[in-house]
């Protein structure tokens, strides 16, 4: 089954293809769709749904979109939906974002408990139906990078049960426990329930 992923983020796309390899995933760029969707929602769910519906309506394809981020307890759930835009530095890199987060947390006692959250939204333009699922993984934020894999905040997100950061895990290890792995496996289950796939 062909599904459009409502993102051109290569890291995210690679993860999703690895989590659910049985689908034929296409991107907006591969279809010549250059629309940027304003993430105006107040929650992960709202932003994921906005992206899924917008790209589905432009493409005519069943579309899946993910909105995800890191919620840190000491910061009352921030950066949350602003995870990618949290660092005020112009042209901020992933490392800039990690350093900025650590700086913001430096006055709080450790451990800096946190969770990664992923909301996956499915929109079928022929049925006009929208469904969403949520995946989370608990951990804590470290004060320095560990590991070379992954992207975003992975190098400072530590999972105590494994004794490793996300960036120290292999792709398979990460996808087995990650927030995105959980949400997209839940999405597959939902599609089975809806009769979209066997």
Question: How would you sum up this structure, described in words?
Answer:
- The protein has a 7-stranded mixed β-sheet with strand order 2-1-3-4-5-6-7.
- The chain has helices spanning 10-19, 44-59, 94-105, 171-177, 179-193; strands at 2-5, 24-26, 63-72, 112-124, 129-141, 157-159, 164-165.
- The protein is an alpha/beta fold.
- Strand 1 (2-5), helix 1 and strand 2 form a beta-alpha-beta unit.
- 30% of the residues lie in helices and 24% in strands.
- Helix 4 (171-177) crosses helix 5.
- It has a single domain, classed as Maf protein (Alpha-Beta Complex), CATH 3.90.950.10.
- The protein has 5 helices and 7 strands; from the N terminus they run βαβαβαββββαα.
Summarize the SSE layout with pairings.
Layout: E1 2-5, H1 10-19, E2 24-26, H2 44-59, E3 63-72, H3 94-105, E4 112-124, E5 129-141, E6 157-159, E7 164-165, H4 171-177, H5 179-193
Helix pairs in contact: 4-5
Task: Give me a quick take on this structure.
This protein is an alpha/beta fold and 198 residues long.
User: Would you state the CATH class?
Assistant: Alpha Beta
Strand content: 15-25%
SS content category? alpha/beta
The number of helices is: 5
Strand order of the largest sheet: 2-1-3-4-5-6-7
State mean pLDDT (0 to 100 scale): 94
How many structural domains in the coordinates? 1
CATH architecture annotation name: Alpha-Beta Complex
């Amino acid at each position: 089954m062909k599904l459009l992923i409502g993102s051109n983020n290569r890291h995210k796309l690679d993860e999703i293809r690895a989590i659910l390899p049985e689908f034929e995933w296409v991107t907006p760029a591969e279809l010549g769709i250059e629309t940027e969707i304003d993430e105006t929602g107040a929650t992960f769910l709202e932003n994921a749904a906005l992206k899924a519906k917008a790209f589905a309506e432009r493409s005519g394809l069943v579309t899946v979109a993910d909105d995800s981020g890191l919620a840190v307890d000491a910061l009352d759930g921030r950066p949350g939906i602003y995870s990618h835009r949290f660092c005020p530095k112009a042209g901020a890199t992933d490392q800039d974002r990690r350093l900025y987060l650590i700086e913001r947390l430096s006055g709080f006692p450790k451990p800096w408990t946190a969770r990664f959250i992923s909301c996956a939204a499915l929109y079928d333009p022929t049925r006009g139906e929208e469904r969403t699922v949520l995946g989370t993984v608990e951990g804590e934020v470290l004060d320095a990078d560990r590991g070379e894999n992954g992207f975003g905040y992975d190098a400072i997100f530590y999972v105590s049960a494994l004794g490793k950061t996300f960036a120290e895990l292999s792709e398979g290890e990460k996808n087995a426990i990650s927030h995105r792995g959980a949400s997209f496996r839940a999405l597959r289950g939902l599609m089975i329930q809806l009769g979209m796939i066997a």
